[in-house]
Amino acid sequence: MSSAIPIDRVRAEQARPPEHPVLARVVELVRLRAARRLDWEQAVRAGQVEGHSRADDLAGELEYYESNSNCAAANQRISELEQQRIGDESDPLLHIAKIFSLSVGELDLLITCLAVALEPELGPLYARLQGSPERCYATETLTARLFGWGRQTLWHQGGQLATWGLVRCVDRGPGQPMPLTVDPMVRARLQGQLRLDAELIGVAELGAAQPQLESWPLSHVSQRIETALEQRRSIRVVLIGPPGCGRRSLASAAAEQFRASALLIDTDEIDDAAWPELYVRACRMCMLGGLIPVWYGSRVSRRWPRSVDPVHVQFVACEDPSELSRQVGVVDEHVVIPSSTLDERRELWRRLVPASVTWPERERESLASRHRLAVGDIAEIGRRMPADPSEAALMAREQTRGRLGELGRLLDCPFDWTDLVLPAQVRETLEDFAFEAAERASFWEQPAARRLFPRGTGLVALLTGPPGTGKTMAAQVVAAELQLDLFRINLATVISKYIGETAKNLDMIFSRAGRMNAVLLFDEADALFSKRTEVKDSHDRHANTDTNYLLQLLEDYQGIALLASNKKNNIDPAFIRRIRYVLSFRRPDAAQRRAIWRKVLGELLGADLLRPLEPAIAVLADAVEISGAQIKNAVLAALFIARRARKSLAAEHLVAGIDRELGKEGRSLSERERERLRHHA
Question: Locate the AAA+ ATPase domain: which residues (predicted)?
Answer without folding.
Answer: 233-379, 457-589
